[in-house]
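Customer ticket, subject: "Can you confirm the structure for DNA helicase RecQ?"

Message body: Hello, I'm evaluating your service for our small team and ran a test protein. I'd like someone to confirm that this is what the system normally returns, since I don't have a reference to compare against.
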Amino acid sequence: MPATLESPLDILQRVFGYESFRGDQQAIIEHVVEGGDALVLMPTGGGKSLCYQIPALARPGTGVVVSPLIALMQDQVDALTELGVRAAFLNSTQDWRTAREVEQAFLDGELDLLYVAPERLVTERCMELLARGHIALFAIDEAHCVSQWGHDFRPEYLELSILSERWPEVPRIALTATATTATRQEIAQRLNLVSARHFVASFDRPNIRYRIVEKADVKRQLLDFIQGEHAGDCGIVYALSRARVEDTAEFLSQHGIPALPYHAGLIAATRAANQSRFLREDGLVIVATIAFGMGIDKPDVRFVAHIDLPKSVEGYYQETGRAGRDGLPATAWLAYGLQDVVQQRRMIDESPGEDMFRRRLGAQLDAMLGLCETVSCRRQRLLAYFDQAIQPCGNCDTCLEPPQAWDGTVAAQKILSAVYRLWRERGQRFGAGHLIDILRGKPTERVKQYAHDELTVYGVGADLSEQAWRGVLRQLLAQSLLAVDHEGYGTLALTEGSREVLKGERTLMFRREPEKRSRSRSSGTR
Ligand code: ADP
Ligand code: ZN
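Agent reply: Thanks for trying us out. I re-ran your input and got the following:
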């Protein structure tokens, strides 16, 4: 590049007003400024935008940014304009006159950055437009959208490899916060970024303390957690359904914690108002479905709580990653129980589409369950999912209060043989609650109605509490040693793995939660 051009550091300071680069930013920027291709994996909030914005300013021509987040384009362009950067976008929300103006500005060389929606970019009209202008680089944001297995898949992303054919001399930089090796390889291959240099940032968020607790009375547990550890703090509570969001927000408010709901079923004005209050005010808790959070950049979120099990480790990582952006201590708290496993397995079984798709969902859930049930360091397990190896962290629940492992083989055999007998001898299948009643020898109406007190397994599990049995069932389900019946209804059935346990070919070590440090008050009442 000509020596007269400003250095990346100068641009960082003059245009963006920041003192110094973070992490790999400088190396990435220099590589792209010099014309190299790059694949950048960096967690959300890591500072990916500057990695293409600065090269776009440093190189002659316009930086063309492909982004699926149409809703955020206006904000991004406004923010850049405020800094004196000449930026514009092309997407379906604009009228044709505005689009024409943007196109003309591009052709006249008056744009530093041009954001384009992928479905727009791949049109012949847009290709011709680009061919007539001068391009500094292509940035492909949210590059994991090219992965057919991810939940953000965009078919148009598959067509983006055309950029390398048409503009082989223009550097391309693909960016994502999705970090598994498999996704990375898929991106490199599908976007034809084979010779790109990979920049993989650490995904560790050392200031976040990870905690996963056994679910009992979850609203009460949540309240205890907030009052006991985060009174007056700002936080996000994630729930799976709208009804639970509403219900939980109201419960917290009734107990003196200012909380607002956020989900797709609220009218747009309420949603926007709740979001902006959350961003502005201190000490507010937002209870939300996962619809909340894309593009939220509030530095002082002190906790993220999940009252339902996230569907994947990646989702969990993204959501918990919204805590502690300012680097100060923050907590990621998750409550999960037997019902979460039953419900999610059932949802997967009932989801439409190909078997392959369901298997993929199942594998994602398994990884999430593995994180919940691990007896080793949570962070180690979490980062291992992103292929990053670390030592035990000292800042998660299992490091701070190591759980015990206990031999649950016999307990597992009891429960599996109950399932087996009910099915073989009676052709019946039941859910968790009734099975536990049989094992504990509880003469309920249902037990009597079915004469289940005559089964040989009746009462053989009286030595364990109901809570302990729920733990055993949950862990069997987590390990697929027991399955939720395909018919639905949450009834339980044996799997291939169950037989190995029944035959005594397998020893099962389960996690036993450490004794709670008092403050448990009315626990046990449900
Ligand atoms: P990502 O796209 O990776 O989620 P962003 O590019 O939006 O992250 O950056 C997150 C935040 O960090 C933004 O507010 C951004 O201005 C800020 N930031 C990025 N790089 C730096 C830096 N070198 N110094 C200070 N702040 C930075
Ligand atoms: Zn740890």
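A couple of notes from the result: Residues 377-379, 392-393, 396, 398-399 surround zinc ion (ligand 2) (CB under 6 Å). The longest strand covers residues 208-214. Feel free to reply with more questions.
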